Amino acid sequence: MISFGFSRYGDPSVLQAYQVPIPQPKKHQVQIRVAYFPVNPYDVALRAGQFAQVPLEKPQYLGSDLVGKVTALGAEVTEFAIGDWVIAHRPHSADSEFVIAGVSKTIRLPHLLDPAVAACLPTPGIAAYNAWFHFAQVPAHTTVAIIGVTGAVGGLLAQIAQQAGNPVIGVANHRHQSEITQPGLSKFVPYDQLPATNDWEHQATVVFNTGMGGQDHGLAARLVAPAGQIIRFNGAPTQVDDEQVQLIDVGYRRELADGVALKFWSDQCQQRPLFLRLAEILPATLTGLRQAHQRTSEPHQGKYVLVWDWAQGLSPTKPKKVD
Ligand SMILES: NC(=O)c1ccc[n+]([C@@H]2O[C@H](COP(=O)([O-])OP(=O)(O)OC[C@H]3O[C@@H](n4cnc5c(N)ncnc54)[C@H](OP(=O)(O)O)[C@@H]3O)[C@@H](O)[C@H]2O)c1
């Protein structure tokens, strides 16, 4: 089968299609034939060598998120059956024709959710869920601010805030002002055309900085209320004079469970439409993947998703009817 990755860091031209054996599921794992997988900013940063520049000794296989169909069961799997459509989260190698995934990181595809959209959910959905419920302490009914509110993580956080009853100050580029439809948005602050009034400053008990690469446009410190929290998704430096403000990085914690976060979003989908934007669906070819990487590294709105040939043209709302 094909698995996409790279053997040296660089621009999208370093991406390669490798021929590798189809992985076989072990205990508590399922094998999934992948239909859709997205490109996340993390994949682009990894390929570009932003995390490490040490020479690679073997190919690095890309991808964390996917939707597909269960094709084999490991020992002691009772949660899924062959033929189930599922969403899964993986540490790597989601950009493949087949993957294996642990049952604790896999959920059934909610029947109301378009599978291409669902493929974009794991990484931003898990990050948004964990940030709100485990890293931040959001006082009831207080205002929060979301930098990058039109992005995947930011948009999902806005949905959580709305349901929790916390008004949201959303920060994004001014060009989104007319089209902005994020749920729960009480105020929009364009970072490149700041309002003349300062009624948005120091109002947010918690500021979520979901800006690409940790870019906050110098606004996190201006948005946060005295002794509030700034929740960072990239660990980029943040200049804050108020020593009482807490800087908190969303990262790994042992007690966090992907399955719990995915189940949360699955339940949400049963109740209301999920707000998660697709930019484009491209064929899962080397050319398609290189284009998706290139476009994700340029200013964009929504996720680029790759579809394998076998899944092209499947009815997105009725995947369970297909063999
Ligand atoms: N710590 C974690 O666990 C975790 C998990 C998921 C994501 N993240 C990080 O969180 C950030 C947001 O992720 P996401 O998936 O929400 O991203 P996204 O949806 O792809 O983009 C978020 C926003 O970034 C701006 N943007 C788009 N392209 C850009 C570019 N080339 N340069 C600068 N800004 C650009 C856009 O807003 P405007 O048009 O308004 O500028 C866009 O809405 C990323 O840096 C990602 O690495 C961290």
CATH class of the largest domain: Alpha Beta
| Number of structurally distinct domains | 2
Low-confidence stretches: 316-323
Terminal-residue CA separation: 20 Å
Determine the fraction of residues in helical runs and give it as a percent range: 10-25%
Describe the structure.
The chain has 7 helices and 16 strands. With 323 residues, the protein is of the alpha/beta class. The chain has 2 domains: 2-121 and 278-321, Quinone Oxidoreductase, Chain A, domain 1 (Alpha-Beta Complex); 125-249, Rossmann fold (3-Layer(aba) Sandwich). The strands form 3 sheets. Strands 3, 5, 6, 7, 8, 15 and 16 form a 7-stranded mixed beta sheet that branches. α3 (122-135) packs across α6 (258-271). It binds NADP nicotinamide-adenine-dinucleotide phosphate. NADP nicotinamide-adenine-dinucleotide phosphate is lined by residues 40-42, 123-124, 127, 148, 150-154, 172-173, 176, 210, 212-213, 233-234, 250, 297-301.
